[in-house]
Amino acid sequence: MAADFWVSSHYERWIVDRATLHQARAEDIQFAENPEYLDYLPIYFANLITKLGKKLQFRQRIIATATVFFRRFYLKNSYCETDPFTVIAACCYLAAKAEESPVHIKVIVAESKSLFSQESYGSRPFSSDNGKIAEMEFYLVDDLECDLVVFHPYRTLLSLCKKEASDSSSSEEGETEDLGVGIGPDDGPRYWGTGDGQLEFTPAALQTAWSIINDSYRSQLCLLYPPHLIAIAAIYLTFILHPPTRPDSSPVAAEHISADGARRRSSRQAHNPPRAAATPKKPQDPIAFLADLNVSLPAVAAIAQEIISMYTLWDRYSEDSMCGVPGVGTPSGEGADADGGPDGGHITPSFLSAVLLRMREARVMDASPIAPSVSRPVAVNKRLERAQAAG
Amino acid sequence: MQSTPPTDNAGETLNGAPLSSSIKDLYKIVSQVGEGTFGKVYKARNTITGTHVALKRIRMESERDGFPVTAMREIKLLQSLRHDNVVKLYEMMVSNGSVYMVFEYMDHDLTGVLSQNQFTFSDAHLKSLCHQMLAGLAYLHHKGVIHRDIKGSNILINNRGELKLADFGLARFYQKRRRTDYTNRVITLWYRPPELLFGATVYGPEVDMWSAGCIMLELFTKKPVFQGVDEIHQVEVVFKLLGTPTSDTWSDAMSLPWFELVKPQQPLPNRFREAFQKWMSPAALDLAEQLLTYDPNQRITALQAMNAPYFTQEEPTAARPVGLINLEGEWHELETKRERAKRKERKSTT
Question: Signal sequence span per UniProt (chain A) (predicted)?
Answer without folding.
Answer: none
